[in-house]
Amino acid sequence: MNTYYFSLLLVIGTFVTGIIWAIDHFVWKPKRDEKIRAAEAQAGVALEPEQADQIAPQSGLADFAQAAFPVLFVILILRSFIYEPFRIPSGSMLPTLLVGDFILVEKFRYGLREPVSRKEFLRTGRPDRGDIAVFKYPVEPDLDYIKRVIGLPGDRITYQDKTFFIQPGCLADCADVEPIELTRDLQAVGEYQQQRMPLHRYHEQYNELEYNVLVNPRVNSTNNTMVWDVPAEHYFFIGDNRDNSVDSRYWGFVHEDLLVGRAVFVWLSLEFERDVNSWLPNWVPSKIRFNRLGRIK
Question: Catalytic residues, which ones?
Fold first, then answer.
């Protein structure tokens, strides 16, 4: 089930159970209490809870709503406006995020939105360069994608020989703005592989933000220089696994209305790789990667 339908069902479930709970609390419960008081007046003694339930029982529907509504309401508030869990399904964000990482996304970071239509009703902020963010895939908005923001509105992005150069906020006049080179020194080789090819790990830095990216030396770098001018209210996203990521280089920019939130924490990380002779199904995790738990940098 995609996130849209889950959000829709959550809203409907919260609304329906809330209505039933309100009717029971303000209409049916006073009638039950009145019947119990009449029985107590007739008997001349206070009834035990079991006796009161027999004389004026609460309906099963009202009992369910009374139990379910607070839970659904809390989940709706947390998931819609504060934090939402996501699972990393692919290796496009290696080495920062691994397949099997379960993360929390800060929903309030980029604005508060109505959970079904996603219409923003309170602007709280927008992405900073270097944020790892979840957003709705522009080509198919029912899907959630996660990538790193490198281009902000008004930036000019240049990609040449597998290196990104950023000219921040220069679209009025980029001639005198010195490009910032993101990709830095080679750190390690061979820790990660793609189709048995060892990947090269590089270091990137922007102001105080530092992170690593992967490059596949087998994938030839293009001799053509690619340039993107980021429009107003749009962002440019890329994967940290540069040669194994379908991102803004292929499908363009992300409008701010498609932003979901910032990835901030790995709360669970499951390893699924195992020996080929293992009898366990592929969907059963082989271990928990405790060393992965913590804030996402």
Answer: 92, 147
